[in-house]
């Protein structure tokens, strides 16, 4: 009786469930993922007119492969999620390649675009539409810059690093905001007292008199309706190498005091666009960073700190106005690369005290990074941090 019941009612049900499950699995078995533009995930500030779009195929079946693809690009993310694009539609393209060059309508500067992809497997079955990816164009042409190049002085031998600041008012609700910043030297950007991004040593090294790099930062969350302030700290980097250097960087033909050019673009909910460019209305002063060099470290004097210098409401009446200076080059292009940034925190494996003035912190490995140390002492106390790659037999540095 039980066997007849199983055969008549349960077994057919199991077969139907299995068939339905198989159909469902077949639909979700493969897909396109890891969508990238110019080998970066959802990048900002793309300057190339025909960026490269790439993806990977996710399929764990034996001998799986892609037989065709269809890429759509558009300005509306909802449409793109439905497989419709107003900028480009590759149509079904028979190929197993996973990288194409954008070949749609001309891209506009300072614009966000969305894209998605569907792929066909070896059996000719079509995947679901991938998740929507995006890329955002940058300046694309030098004529789109509004800001001018500024510095605090033309003295290449002045040691302290300069600070720059600008206060401005945003009259309405913010939809989005970007900071486009080009620097000869190195920089740290601050908005309303907070450091922008997690990059270090930006921009990257170039032949500065032939190519200048700029970066794009999303600063939407750092701004507010009402009073705001932007601040920039500039460093020498490879641009103004003041220390005697291998390969004669201290004699480089491009040497000059570090300088910057920046445009802050703010889009309000009511459609208004506000641009805050660099110019002689920016204020400048010397920073507590009294010396900085790629080769011979940094000297920082905490007694010279200017609390709130990058905040609205700061009294900068004793600061000087920035000066206009020539651009380091006429070729200003986007920096499109994975940034240098902190990836992990490595605590000291051991600490050995040799005297009240000397300690050795052993990390147990060589690293490329920066040190973080909490200290307490009398005003004017000098602290020196030296880095080394190996220990002496007595565990000293």
User: How is the main sheet built?
Assistant: 6 strands, antiparallel
Q: Count the domains.
A: 3
What is the CATH third-level topology name of the largest domain?
Answer: Jelly Rolls
Rg is 28 Å
Going by helix content, strand content and strand pairing, the class is: mainly beta
Describe this structure in words.
It is a single chain. This protein is mainly beta. The protein folds into three domains: 23-136, Immunoglobulin-like (Sandwich); 142-341, Galactose-binding domain-like (Jelly Rolls, Sandwich); 346-397, no CATH class. 8% of the residues lie in helices and 36% in strands. The chain is built from two helices and 27 strands. The strands form eight sheets. The chain has a six-stranded antiparallel beta sheet with strand order 13-12-16-10-19-22, with no helix packed on it. A hairpin with a 2-residue loop joins strand 26 and strand 27 (358-362). The longest helix is centred in the N-terminal third of the chain and has 27 residues, at 2-28. 28% of the residues are buried.
Brief characterization of the structure:
The protein contains two helices and 27 strands.
């Amino acid at each position: 009786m039980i066997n007849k019941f199983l055969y008549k009612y349960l077994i057919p049900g199991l077969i139907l469930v299995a068939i339905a499950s198989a159909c469902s699995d077949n639909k979700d078995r493969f897909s396109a993922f890891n969508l990238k533009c110019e080998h970066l995930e959802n990048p900002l500030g793309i300057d190339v007119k025909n960026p490269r779009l790439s993806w990977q195929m996710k399929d764990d079946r034996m001998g799986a492969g892609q037989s065709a693809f269809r890429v759509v690009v558009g300005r509306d993310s909802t449409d793109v999620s439905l497989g419709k694009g107003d900028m480009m539609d590759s149509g079904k393209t028979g190929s197993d390649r996973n990288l194409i060059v954008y070949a749609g309508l001309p891209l506009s500067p300072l614009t966000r675009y969305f894209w998605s992809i569907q792929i066909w497997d070896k059996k000719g079955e079509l995947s679901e539409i991938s998740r929507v990816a995006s890329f955002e164009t940058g300046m694309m042409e030098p004529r789109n810059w509004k800001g001018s190049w500024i510095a605090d002085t033309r003295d290449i031998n002045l040691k302290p690093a300069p600070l720059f600041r600008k206060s401005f008012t945003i009259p309405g609700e913010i939809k989005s905001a970007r900071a486009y910043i080009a620097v000869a030297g190195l920089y740290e950007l601050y908005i309303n007292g907070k450091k922008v991004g997690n990059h270090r040593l930006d921009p990257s090294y170039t032949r500065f008199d032939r190519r200048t790099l700029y970066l794009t930062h999303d600063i939407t969350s750092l701004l507010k309706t009402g009073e705001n302030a932007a601040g920039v700290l500039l460093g020498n980097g490879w641009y103004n190498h003041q220390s005697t250097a291998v390969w004669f960087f201290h004699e480089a033909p491009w040497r000059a005091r570090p300088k910057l050019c920046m445009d802050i673009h703010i889009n309000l909910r009511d459609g208004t666009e506000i641009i805050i460019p660099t110019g002689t209305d920016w204020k400048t002063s010397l920073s507590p960073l009294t010396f900085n060099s790629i080769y011979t470290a940094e000297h920082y004097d905490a007694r010279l700190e200017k609390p709130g210098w990058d905040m609205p409401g700061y009294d900068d009446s004793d600061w000087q106005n920035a000066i206009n200076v020539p651009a380091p080059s006429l070729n200003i292009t986007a920096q499109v690369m994975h940034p240098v940034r902190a990836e992990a925190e490595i605590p000291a494996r051991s600490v050995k005290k040799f005297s009240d003035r000397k300690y050795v912190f052993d990390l147990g490995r060589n690293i490329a990074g920066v040190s973080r140390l909490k200290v307490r002492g009398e005003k004017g106390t000098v602290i020196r941090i030296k880095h080394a790659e190996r220990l002496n037999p007595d565990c000293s540095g």
